[in-house]
Amino acid sequence: MSQSQGKVLIVDDESSIRRAVHNTLQIMGFHVDEASSGEAALRLVLEAPYDVVLLDINMPGMGGVRACREMRKSLPRLGILMLTVRDSEEDKVAALDAGADDYITKPFNVRELAARIRAAVRRSSASQADPDAVIRIGSVELDPPRRLVRKGGGPIHLTPKEFDLLHFLMARAGLPITHVRLLHAVWGPEYGGELEYLRTFVRQLRKKLEDDPAEPSYLLTDSHIGYRFAEARPEPVAENV
Amino acid sequence: MDRNSDLTAVWVAQSGGTRADSWTSYWKLVQSRIGILRGCLAGVAAVALVTFIAFRLHLNLSTSGSLYFLIVVVVSVIWGFWEASVTSLIAVNCLNYFFVPPVLTFRISDPQDWVALATFEISALIVSRLSTRAQNQAKAEARHRAQVEKLYELGRRILFLDRRRTIGPQIVSLVQEVFGTESVALFDATLARLDATGSRAEDLEELARRAYFQDSALEGADERTWAHVLRLGSRPAGALALRGPDLDRLAIVPIASLAAIALERARSFEKESRAEAARQTEQLRTTVLDALAHAFKTPLTAIRTASSGLLETGRLTADDFELAALIDEQAEHLNRLATKLLQMARIDAAEVRLRRGRISVLTLIEDVLARYREQIHDRQVSVSDAAASLEVYGDREILAAALEQFIDNASKYSATGSPITVTAEENLGEIVIAVHNEGPPIRPADRERIFERFYRAEESRHRASGTGLGLSIAKKAAEAHGGRTWVVSEERTGTTFFFALPGGTGRRYESVAG
Asked: Rounded distance, CA A104 to CA B301, Å?
């Protein structure tokens, strides 16, 4: 077997899911450990370093969201990927607000899961990057110190708020950012319920940035959750329907 | 007794009741006459005794006058005015005959004695009148107090009636027990139910029913039978009839009010328990659904993980690969089916309670398109500008589920790469959302039926993978909001699915889902 692609901890109370994920990820070159509860997972991540934890959101005992919050407290760089079911948007938002990096909906395609894990591994190793470094994703280029945005070489004029919003999303490319987190970061902590602001600004940004604003390829909507900027190498992120 | 004629219509008892009631009132009259006679006899006997003693002891006029006066007062206190008057007349004659000189004659020689006798008689009459009146007042007050105490007791005990049992029989026996009435009848108009207790209750039942249908208070000719309408607010809800004895007719109105309150409490308890039962059913359904969702999704997740994992290994032969791909595909199909069944069941459950809010139509459309981004990435999707200014009042999850079916349908049944158009407009008080595709037309015979559960048009069965549930979900979702769905399909223009919801503000229809 080739060199390990990363160390993954799968946390789920269902042994059949642990077995299936464990075996397939192992075949794909990951080093995998298992835990059947949030409590057990907490002990494991504190004992040994992991790159990514796959955390089922709905478990007896402390549950995925609380486990995520606890892990995030002591391990800010750990990649946390929540395993959710389709109809639990509120849970997903709660998990993201508790510090999860991303979520994936059950039942998932393993290729997609592997892509998310690799992205999380990359992020956790690159998160010490220079905050002033120019961000290039696809044909979009953002220069933080000069507050400049170019697309395909040509400058794009953005208002200050539009720039802040784009900067925040591009700095976390590939990650879903909840509405509330975006509002807090760009408008200030006293905001949180003004979803219409956000929608208006995202609409404006799409008009300036996307080839086809009706079918965005950079500024993506995560239904009922928030927005994410597409990753450098766009990976499929659609939900299973 | 004053008669409040505008409130009370005199009820003349019918046939069988008439003779019995007149006999009763006659007997009552005789009894009261005998009572007076008894008082008079007692007074006369006392006067005779005092006369005998005073005459033998040779008491003078003023001493024996005082003794007679005492007798008159005592008689008036014990029996009343008429008895005291008779006694005083006998006494004044005895006084004249035995003690006014010349004694043992009715003659009076001294005019002053006339004055004395007249004074005696007048004083006796006045004192007996006053004492009787005071007596009557005290009696009335005592009766009133007893009545108030009984009403209070009735009010208190009516709160403790067993609300799980039928309320009517409990009310009648409680009223009879507390007021000691001969019989009680209650007509409950909502249940069309009569309850009665005590003797000759059939007459009372009839009286209660008549009071309700005439919507007025009734009174029996015997003055001891009453019926009063029970009202909940201003609406008559039944009637209560009572028969004496010792029933103060002023107490009828409060008794009726208390009975009406008991009925109302029973009604609201019933309503409450029905709502509670509905809530529990809904909760049970949600719990079962969540458990089912978990039970389905867990094995599906394991299967898909394994099948897609196998495909990723790159170590399979072409045949192995084909088989693993089949498992993967069908697991995904099963997942879609389970998701839709759950959606359907949730919408069924939502008919009990929609979680409504104001939703921007554009946001709704954008959210759904985002979910289908992968499936429609090769399509030109356009959304009409009007959507930005429209709002609907509804359940976000359920409306999104409905719109998803249209988008899913449009992308499945039209050629790859052909455009999909989503429009929204306000039309005749409805918000109409339409999803258009350029797919082949749907046969007229199928246009109604494709909205039925599990129905799939003949040709589509071979063309696209589907569950036969999608459009029925959309229809259910629209109907849960008081709206509707339909389809227009033509060879030339393509197929458009419509989803109409009442009112831009939705205010008018807020009560639809209650």
From this structure: 12
Cα–Cα nearest to B270, from B208, B191, B212: B191
- Secondary structure (H, E, C), chain A: CCCCCCEEEEECCCHHHHHHHHHHHHHCCCEEEEECCHHHHHHHHHHCCCCEEEEECCCCCCHHHHHHHHHHHHCCCCEEEEEECCCCHHHHHHHHHCCCCEEEECCCCHHHHHHHHHHHHHHHHHCCCCCCCCEEECCEEEECCCCEEEECCEEECCCHHHHHHHHHHHHCCCCCEEHHHHHHHHCCCCCCCCHHHHHHHHHHHHHHHCCCCCCCCCEEEECCCEEEECCCCCCCCCCCC
Domain residue spans of chain A? 7-126, 135-229
Any CB–CB contact under 8 A between B377 and chain A? Answer: yes
For domain A135-229, the CATH architecture is: Orthogonal Bundle (1.10)
Q: CB distance from A88 to chain B under 8 Å?
A: no
3-class DSSP state for residue B134?
helix
Looking at residue A45, its pLDDT comes to: 93
Closest Cα of chain A to B302: distance in Å? Answer: 5
| Partner A contacted by B316 (CB < 8 A) | no
Query: A203 Cβ partners below 8 Å, 6+ apart?
Result: A213
A224 and chain B in contact, CB less than 8 A: yes
Domains of chain B plus CATH, in order, are 9-148 (no CATH), 159-353 (3.30.450), 354-509 (3.30.565.10)
Helix axis angle for B167-179 and B249-313, nearest 10°, is 150
Check CB contact under 8 Å for A27 and B309. yes
**Segments of chain B scoring below 70 in pLDDT:** 1-25, 246, 282, 285-286, 290, 293-294, 349-353, 453-454, 456-467, 504-514
Spatial CB neighbours of B126, under 8 Å, sequence gap ≥ 6: none
What's the pLDDT tens digit per position in B48-77?
999 999 888 888 888 888 899 899 988 888
The pLDDT score that the predictor gives to residue B2 is 40
| A200 in contact with B, Cβ within 8 Å | no
CB atoms within 10 A of CB A23: 15
**The domain A7-126: what is its CATH number?**
3.40.50.2300
Phi, psi (rounded to 5 degrees) for A93: -60, -45
Q: In chain A, which stretches have pLDDT less than 70?
A: 1-3, 86-87, 125-129, 232-241
Alpha carbon B281 to its chain centroid, in Å, reads 22
Of A21, A236, A239, which is closest to B305 when you measure between CB atoms?
A21
Q: What is the pLDDT of residues A124-159, one digit of tens each?
A: 766 556 777 888 888 999 999 899 999 988 899 999
